[in-house]
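Batch manifest, entry 17 of 40.
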Amino acid sequence: MKRAKLLIKHAEQIVQVCANNEDMLVGEAMRNIAVMKPEEGTSGLSLVIDREGNIADFGTDAILEAKYANWYFENVLDASGCCLLPGLVDAHTHPVWAGDRVHEFAMKLAGATYMEVHKAGGGINFTVEHTRNASEEELFVLFKERLQRMVKAGTTLVECKSGYGLDVENELKMLRVIERARRDDNINIEISSTYCGAHSVPKGSTADEATDDVISKQIPAIKAEMEMGKLHVDNIDVFCEKGVFDIMQTRRILEEGVKAGWRINFHGDELNPMKAAELGADMKACAISHLEEISDNGIAAMASVRSVAVILPTTAYILRLRAPPVRKMIESGVPMALGSDFNPNAFCLSMPLVMHLACVNLRMSMPEAIAASTINAAASLGRSRTHGSIEVGKRGNVLVIRAPKWEHLVYQLGGQNDIIAAVVCRGKIAYQNCKPEEA
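Output type: structure tokens
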């Protein structure tokens, strides 16, 4: 008897997002996502995930019931009254750290800017101190709990940065924590690992000294761990910002990351116009995050090379920053992705909430928001050939929402605890939320 991991049946809709193997959706295409609905008079839609955890088939209940009549499924989900979406992709997080910064929230509410908090000893350097003092085991326990909360909110692929170590020993410690979770079969979420040793200038150092340390000490040490099979790193990140790393320092670090085989995926043009978008486009960056202060030239440059703009609605919301020019970027042909920016400054683990903020505050449509949280977010991590849409051969990461229309995931503000019925990662049921009458 042939076997498969999972059958999901009787769904009201299957939100494919893409139907033609697109690497990303740009401009008008973001508003025209692919949604499959059952034919009138039929019972619903079904989806099959194979033993390798990939999408094998999907279509009407009647066709798949006949086609797979003699198959054995390890699990079956009844999605009556529900919709299926690709598992959400969180394109930007800082999830490995100790010591919260809840006290800084009060400072910000009183009017303190991000850099004022930073100069007062708060911000990144506050978290660096607590993260350095934490053991690898303590960090792993905190990280694992955060990942589990992300899964419950529908995330099945997440980008995870280091960057609260700022020296060889502690950056390696953070990357080992990320690697441990990446290899743990009991943690049902996929991870893209980012080295972000140039997240801030350590106390007692200059930016030039920090740049030299990253290039001459940190990157070689990480490469050595990778060559021994102890670590896997996908991306290189730098906080390109006034008072942190300037354009030339950022370029030097990114160039070393490219030599190490990593994708460029960095912070740019957040608090001040730095021409980071122009730099990223020149270096063919896979993605650039924030971009609240992007220039018109930067927009044109990113559009020309299809560098993905990773927009972080929680950051502008919490820091009361000017919103990035999302509509102009979309209309100019810049690929647009979304991320939670989960970190001690922006404590948000929910991509549905991120999408809601993007729609209300940044004036994205709901189709644009779901495209930005699936296929385009996967593209920002170089994974859109395998993730980010419901297409045959792609990873079996699927979200089952308890609503007749997929838009409820964005519409119901703060309601994901009830609306998400199940989260599937690689064909395995990572989370299932039963109503009392279903239990």
